[in-house]
Amino acid sequence: MRQPVAIALAAVAALALSCKKTPPPAPPAPLPAVPAQPPPAPPLPEQATQVDEYERLRQMSADEIDRLGLLTDIHFDYDKFDLREGDRQLLSKNAETLKRFDFIKITIEGHCDERGSVEYNLALGERRAKAAFDYLLSLGVEAGRMKTVSYGKEVPLCQESNEDCWARNRRDHFAVTGKTK
Could you tell me the residue ranges of all domains in the chain? Predict the structure, then answer.
């Protein structure tokens, strides 16, 4: 009787091996964890950026705004106060800046080189400042936000007595001197 039991056990073992199932597939890898911080916001439109810049400058003092160098100086030929074409373009950019930041008040400073008398250069510096004032006014900058002053030859940028230095001194400088609002 041992033989039939052994045969039966062998048959069961053979059946078990032939019916052996393949192991189930491994579970899928877990998804990466969601970051704790949300993704960055899409870039703001240009108008929103300008509003932020507007508000940032509104919070600054006039001296701080002046140090930013938002406005560009213009220069003049010897013994002249008429605006050159390149300087008109610079004044147009200055006007755009002044209209965008409509709270800025400026002083247009007329300067001359060292040649000529003090009186002559004060008068020439005033005509230079007035020429820039009138041009900015024609471009839509409010007169109440601008004033002029002439320093003549009294506040030079350069102290040397040569044409390059004199050309640098013949200028209108645009100083931010206050805020309207």
Answer: 57-181
- Cα 95 from Cα 92, distance rounded (Å): 5
Q: Enter the pTM of the model.
A: 0.72
d(CA 29, CA 95) in angstroms, rounded, equals 62
Architecture label for domain 57-181: 2-Layer Sandwich (3.30)
Judged against a pLDDT cut of 80, whether residue 41 lies above it is answered with: no
Whether 89 and 72 have beta carbons less than 8 Å apart is answered as no
Retrieve residue 81's tokens.
């106060």
